[in-house]
Structure prediction request, 236 residues.
Amino acid sequence: MEHRYVEYEDNGTLLEGYFVTPGGSDLPLILVAHDWTGRRQYAIDKANEMADRGYAAFALDMYGKGVFGRDGDVEYNSSLMGPFAMDRLKLRQRVHAALTAGRAQPEVNGQQVAAIGYCFGGMCVLELARSGADVLGVVSVHGIFSPGEVANEAMTSKVLCLHGHDDPMVPPEQVVAFEQEMTAAGVDWQMHVYGATTHAFTNPGANNPDFGTVYSERANRRADRSTTDFFEEIFN
Prediction:
């Protein structure tokens, strides 16, 4: 694989993404949106997984170059994520900056772009879709479904949500409301719900039952299969 770090900006904030390819050119691009701890190793590993499957991948940066959260520090991580959760226009602008930066890489086919996000990153890619961005599809993995105050544009992206039924951060009524939102918008959407599964189920480092974040090998394997099928469908 070939990789590099890419600096880009959003409204005066310097950001740094991680770009990786299996080699070659004219590659489909997958944006990888990180969890609330920032573009750390977990996001890099996920980008590398996408490159292993033959795609270019860009692990975007929501917080700023060198700004990262801390394991187990709920207050600090919330302070990083909170401004974007509260201001979805700001969030959309930051994700669009990453989309522009990823598309600008010479190895990329700019007409074949998708996005995947984990936890907070799930919120980010869903907002990318809600903004009417010209991307083929987005995948939210144990993401946050609740919409913000910003009106949605006409949505063209296909949407796949991979969700743990016992996720304390996304109650069942929020799942139903999201499904109704997507249906009303005429979106080609899927919701895969895994029983006996909580938040952060794809993260091997998640092991906090009291907080509701626990890794599940079974759910992770099923989610990986669904993600593979989804990307193969939209890129072919």
